[in-house]
Amino acid sequence: MTLSKAATQSDASVHSTFASRYARVCLPRFKMPDNSIPKEAAYQIINDELMLDGNPRLNLASFVTTWMEPECDKLMMDAINKNYVDMDEYPVTTELQNRCVNMIANLFNAPLGETEVAVGVGTVGSSEAIMLAGLAFKRRWQNRRRALGLPTDNPNIVTGANVQVCWEKFARYFEVELKEVKLSDGYYVMDPQKAVDMVDENTICVAAILGSTLNGEFEDVKLLNDLLEAKNKETGWDTPIHVDAASGGFIAPFLYPELEWDFRLPLVKSINVSGHKYGLVYAGVGWVIWRTKEDLPEELIFHINYLGADQPTFTLNFSKGSNQIIAQYYQLIRLGFEGYKNIMENCQENAKILKAGLEETGRFTIISKDIGVPLVAFSLKDNSIHNEFEISDMLRRYGWIVPAYTMPPDAQHVTVLRVVIREDFSRTLANRLVTDIEKVLTDLDALPARFSAKLAANDENDDQVSRKKTALEMQKEVCSVWKKFVDERKMKINGVC
Amino acid sequence: MALSEAVSDGDAYIQSTFASRHLQTSLPRFKMPESSIPKEAAYQIINDELMLDGNPRLNLASFVTTWMEPECDKLMMEAINKNYVDMDEYPVTTELQNRCVNMIARLFNAPLEDSEAAVGVGTVGSSEAIMLAGLAFKRRWQNKRKAQGLPSDNPNIVTGANVQVCWEKFARYFEVELKEVKLREGYYVMDPVKAVEMVDENTICVAAILGSTLNGEFEDVKLLNDLLQEKNKESGWDTPIHVDAASGGFIAPFLYPELEWDFRLPLVKSINVSGHKYGLVYAGIGWVVWRTKEDLPEELIFHINYLGADQPTFTLNFSKGSSQVIAQYYQLIRLGFEGYHSVMENCQQNAMVLKAGLEKTGRFTIVSKDKGVPLVAFSLKDTTRHNEFEVSDMLRRFGWIVPAYTMPADAQHVTVLRVVVREDFSRTLAERLVLDITKVLNELDQLPSKNGNSQNHHFMGKNGVVNMHKKTALETQREITDVWKKFVMARKSSKVC
């Protein structure tokens, strides 16, 4: 009689996922583990930890797309193992990028013939796009100065203090001085007149933003162009303009086609736009377009052949995934002009609903403008007792991620909350958000002011929750109020959210 | 009696995919289409065009991973709408990146305590990683020179002529002179002695490659370290080393643990590795690790808060997908040390099988070494009648993509074919490839040689020349046509592959 052996305790393939010993072991955080683990266990462990990340679709801080159609998801999954840079091996994918560049250039009214190929490239995001554009400006300026026999060791770029951090990175990493036009209370974008005043012989370009990160406003590029043209005529410096249309590039052509901000203005030599913001693609794709071939110095372009054939390359990144490029092309042909227009109109309408709801509470000042990126930036009218950071924290409990931040100089005393309206933020969600904000206001009204509320208003890196109260009595008082609050809540009949 | 209307022709919902009119119209390539099209049509059209791209798994030119386990694919797809840079909103994803940095730093023997956090960052690829490392070196060198009151306007970097193009990009974009140690026939990596001779007071670092792109060889970093230490002692310049371990970083620790090339050598201050090569993740992830905090100047790190809380950022790219970071962590814990070791051993064994098969044909010289990246680089012994480019072209017909290219200066007369053995290149495929190469050799033997011996090669220089032959003699054309005709007739009776 043979004795059959029962499956041993360590037979991982038999155990259900959470029965296996892997769910008990703490994973190393500093050193690679010595042994392998089954793939199901690896999947489950990582998946479970990631549950504690925020929900991307409720992340109202971000401009970046968080939803795409399942058909597009399928295309992206199929392309996930294609390395974009192998242009010789994947000619169709390369062709799709070229088509996107052409379409976007034409959307921006680049001076091109009917079948003329545009000058531009797909990047990983607007950061890379801006660095490439800045490099092109810097090199052109250097070449021009050398031809004139003038020094080239002190280039600068003029922009508003409201620029996104990638301009500061560009300036610091590529050794260009950043001359920032300061903001003022109530005026949160770059003032064209002040910008032109700052231009000197070392200015490689003036950067205007179409869709400021802080409050969504479009800068007046036309005015800047006109003033700069006048100055160029006097000085002979020929200073160009770059438009950072990271957010606005896929909004203005659909909602405000008569607004002149793009290549229709003669001084605009390059434009960048984020495919992953209102281009409606997941994170990881941006575009930069130059007006003509002359605006992109040939010496910056590399030609390589070790992947098998000649490949021109002018990007900072080399290997990267192909799926976002394919997704961008999908969106451009799937939606077409009318589709994008419909979506932007919806976003704008939903932004207005949200704004109306907030105004109705009577507690907020709206900082964002109606014309611009569909977002609502708002401040408390009275932040002496509670401030915007507390509202932001309390909204988290309802699941919403709404950031609060301070304005850059010279408006650092102003704090705003910002809600970005993306494609997938429907009217229902807008109404719900207003309801939840009202609840938060009610909850806050019942609380006493925080001990260091005044300090918080000036502190840029604020995290209210980790403040430690120094006075014991204050602590006890707050404690009793919270207790009362919780007791009252238990008695309320809350609708399930 | 009500008349019901028949469904009109234009009702796209009913028509099967290929019946709809959308598959009859040519898609715009230059301008965005005016109208939307149904998502199924958009998906089908793009999917179909992409069928004409090469098959990523048969792309033997690339080092970049082309296959991952389905569990990992699932994790990646679920994270596809997470913007990595929102660190405050996705703290777990950020934590996973930190864990990967810690594990990789320890894999490279960084001098760290058990629970000390390593200094490093995830990037989009080794290009970005190298630019960040180079920036850090440049800034440190500038600070040092300024402190000594010496000029800092002429930095240079010493490296071999076999460097990947991103070093040339770094040099050109960040205005650092590139001093290349030339190769010679039979010696295709950087000679440490010559490199050290080229070092001067303006050298910001010497870059060694662990796993040369051309033939997979590891450079002798230890010898470089020893020679450079001596020179530093004499000169007092304190020149550091950077190791570009894009390919080799995930091979050497598993196959050659006794090989000293990493932080065990005192002059090595930073290392980059591609997660998407032998880190076994799809395209789009690299890592750079610094020895200590001092090696990364604080002034290069930015702190922003407009996404809601303080976020330090030192990368060139800002917004990007999170999937690859999660996938890297999956691989590190799923495989562990033993898993990676097994995969690398398999790759090496399969490379040996391929090498043996090629040697057996008697027609090739093997240019790659046994020790190094698992790849086989080989040349024809006799190139008087046919050359490696023709072999490469003919292999395409069998589905294989095997690139041929010329070596950089001073070995431009040498042409090689290169097959990279990745995780998913099994022994079966290796044997099949040898069979197909043998077939190709047979076919080439029957063809007359192309006109003239001086072919237009692809050069490894900066301005590549695309290989395009035009036959000038009509008789040769006819002769070749006859041979092809004969060949096709013969093939028709051969077995189905």
Brief sketch in words of this structure:
The first copy, chain A, has helices at residues 39-50, 70-78, 91-107, 126-147, 165-173, 192-198, 221-235, 252-255, 323-361, 388-397, 427-445, 453-458, 472-491; strands spanning 119-123, 156-160, 177-181, 203-209, 241-244, 268-274, 286-290, 302-304, 311-313, 364-366, 375-380, 404-406, 415-420. Chain A has 497 residues and is of the alpha/beta class.
Account of the 3D structure:
The structure is a homodimer of 497-residue chains. With 497 residues, chain A is α/β, with parallel strands linked by helices. Helices cover 38% and strands 12% of the residues of chain A. Chain A contains 13 helices and 13 strands. In chain A, strands 1-7-6-5-4-2-3 form a seven-stranded mixed sheet, sandwiched between helices. In chain A, strands 10-11-13-12 form a four-stranded antiparallel sheet. In chain A, strands 8-9 form a two-stranded antiparallel ribbon. The first copy, chain A, starts with 38 loop residues before the first helix and ends in a 6-residue tail after the last helix. The C terminus of chain A is likely disordered. The interface between A and B is large, with 132 and 136 residues.
